[in-house]
Amino acid sequence: MLRLVSLAAFGLVAACDLPAPAAVPRGVALTDRYLDVFFSQGAVCRTRVDLSSGVARGRMEGCPTEIAYVVTVNAATNPVRFIFRELGAAVSAAGVFRPNATITLTRTTGQVFKFASLGHRRNDAEDL
To answer: Which segments in the chain show pLDDT lower than 50?
Structure first.
């Protein structure tokens, strides 16, 4: 019996030494100025992006895992969206519409994650 208790105690202590799984990107939010990446462990990383050339690339700083990003603005867009975006720009409400883009995140291990900026957006209410 003592041997069984000792074995169980050793198992519990050994389990404490297991490394935590690496944080995985679970969602993104893109505005005309910022890219936010939401990680599986609850962390959020933000970086400033310049989309004026149609492509922004760089490395996210201070994230749970090192990650590079490429944001590619999709030139072909819904004509109705285009009209509303242009009207918004005319009345100084350009930031109201999120850019239509593809975001590619690459970990240092080579693992790639792709997101659409107009796709699922993380909602804090989902965590409740």
So the answer is: 121-128
Whether the full predicted model's pTM is greater than 0.70, yes or no, is no
3-state secondary structure the chain: CHHHHHHHHHHHHHHHCCCCCCCCEEEEEECCCEEEEEECCCCEEEEECCCCCCEEEEEECCCCCCEEEEEEECCCCCHHHHHHHHHHHHCCCHHHCCCCEEEEEEECCCCEEEEECCCCCCCHHHHC
Each residue of 81-113: pLDDT tens digit? 556 556 655 555 555 567 889 999 999 899 999
Rounded-to-integer distance, Cα 54 and Cα 62, Å: 25
